[in-house]
Amino acid sequence: MAGLGARSVLVTGANRGIGLELVRQLLSKPDSPQWLFACSREPDGERGQELRNLVSKHPNLVIVKLDATSPTSIKDAAVCVENHLKGSGLNLLINNAGVFKDVALDAVDVEDMISGYKINVIGPLLVSQAFLPLLRRAAQGSSQKGLSCNRAAIINISSTLGSIELVPPSYMNPAVPYRCSKAALNMLTQCQSVEFKDFGILCTIVHPGWVKTEMGGQEADLTVDESVRGILDVLSKLSDEHNGAFISWKGNKMPW
Length: 256
Ligand code: NDP
Description:
This is C-factor-like isoform X1. One of its GO terms (molecular function) is oxidoreductase activity. Belongs to the short-chain dehydrogenases/reductases (SDR) family. The protein has a single domain (8-248), classed as Rossmann fold (3-Layer(aba) Sandwich), CATH 3.40.50.720. Helix content is 41%, strand content 13%. The protein has seven helices and seven strands, in the order βαβαβαβαβααβαβ. The two termini are 27 Å apart. Residues 12-13, 15-19, 41-42, 47, 66-69, 96-100, 119, 157, 159, 207-208, 210-211, 213-216, 220 line the site of NADPH dihydro-nicotinamide-adenine-dinucleotide phosphate. The site of NADPH dihydro-nicotinamide-adenine-dinucleotide phosphate has 31 residues, from helix 1.
């Protein structure tokens, strides 16, 4: 984790689960980011309480309203972040917000498919689009030459359930809308990695492990603390060779 020195970081879905723990651990680092933008779709509601408690102790933390299903909300969030950065770029964007529904082929309906796709794929697409100018500014303003999270990066949080090769061993949870949306997110990241490489922006897919959160459930393998420690360690080591890669919270390559 010592190597992750991004000066500005934005995390979506930061009011609970993996997103909230990313914020907590980034704040506790000795070289905490100068600006840490924690996004929540309802910052003033009950679910935003933990973030509001953190803001009172950390002046570098800014809560930003962002609903991943609303293009207007995403654009407003980008304007808010740009105003805070005062001419600097955004180094690291973590598209973490997501939804899971474990529904099988015989029961899945149009709404299940559309809502999974809207939040898990179109959300990261639109968020990356809106923040692209700030990411490009960070890459251009950096003295570093190669790709890294300290310079400029988009990290899309995917899942082992988005791996097409791993469907047979993981099909105890059919989760059809989730699997399809995360497979599409993986494709989106590959496209971003090709297009944004020349801007100096690294694009990588990270699987956080099976984590004890509202989504993962209490029978999951990992505590949120373990998963996020692993993720932040991995992020600190990413370079050109990881552009477009699908990797786990331990840094291992995931099967496509
Ligand atoms: P949680 O369900 O605990 O948290 C999900 C987060 O996403 C919440 O902050 C939630 O906000 C936010 N969110 C949901 N919908 C929207 C929306 N429309 N706009 C903005 N934010 C939204 O999930 P985890 O922390 O476990 O998961 C985080 C990421 O990790 C997800 O992308 C997930 O797919 C992935 N993942 C998780 C695994 C696990 O085992 N936990 C395994 C593999 C991948 P709100 O409180 O407002 O609903």
